[in-house]
Design goal:
Distance between the termini: 50 Å
Order of helices and strands: HEEEHHHHHH
Low-confidence stretches: 194-209
Radius of gyration: 25 Å
Largest sheet: 3 strands, antiparallel
Structural class: alpha+beta
Number of helices: 7
Helix content: 40-55%
Number of strands: 3
Shape: elongated
Strand content: 15-25%
Mean pLDDT: 80
Oligomer: single chain
Length: 209
């Protein structure tokens, strides 16, 4: 268990509730996820027990105040796009169940929760627009160095309604072409070397596959 009785299952429950909520409301123009391996924008959750008291004369129950924090950042450089906080008070005999109950009671239909995502999206779009020239320049530098994966990583999430989207598409096409040509050159060189050693089966394999 983590601090104050909050555990991995609580975070899993929170992720499920939030992902289900903003996916149902309609797709955003930018990708948001709890995993930075899927998009560059990461939702970082935090669950905190603000207060815990025992109540009741005959049967003791716990009165627990739970705070949930959400932060949306750019995973690589931790640029902050928006933050959200809500608190819920619940009662239960068991602390573990009380925390789960608090998470389930979070009102994802609330305007404050809804605006958290739309505001983050606005900030992300502004981030791309303001950094378009820098992103394109960095991608070009990576392409010149033949670091195609790094260049593609910078370009692939640029939204369609950003001014440099056409430039990004052009560079992605260039990455594909240059990478393909580079791989072809490597395969031909490998085939020539194998032919010099009379390794004809491997030569044929290199040219076919």
């Amino acid at each position: 268990k983590t601090k104050n009785g909050v555990n991995k299952e609580h975070y899993k429950l929170l992720r499920q509730k939030i992902e289900g909520s903003y996916n149902e409301r309609g797709k955003l123009k930018v990708g948001l996820n709890f995993s930075p391996s899927q998009t560059p924008f990461e939702i970082i959750p935090s669950i905190e027990i603000v207060d815990e008291k025992n109540a009741g004369d005959i049967q003791t129950v716990k009165v627990v105040k739970v705070a949930v924090y959400l932060t949306i950042t750019e995973a690589e450089n931790q640029t902050l796009f928006n933050q959200f906080k809500t608190t819920v008070i619940v009662t239960d005999k068991d602390l573990d169940k009380a925390i789960a109950k608090a998470i389930l009671q979070i009102k994802t239909s609330d305007s404050k929760f809804r605006s958290f995502f739309t505001k983050a999206e606005t900030n992300i779009l502004a981030y791309y627009e303001n950094n378009c020239a820098k992103i394109i320049k960095s991608a070009n530098t990576y392409i010149e160095r033949k670091e195609f994966n790094k260049a593609y990583g910078l370009l692939k999430y640029i939204p369609e309604n950003i001014s440099c989207f056409a430039d990004a598409e052009r560079l992605i096409t260039k990455i594909y072409t240059d990478n393909k040509d580079d791989n072809c050159k490597k395969m031909l060189e490998q085939a020539r070397n194998q032919k010099a050693y009379k390794d004809y089966p491997s030569t044929l394999y290199s040219l076919v596959f």
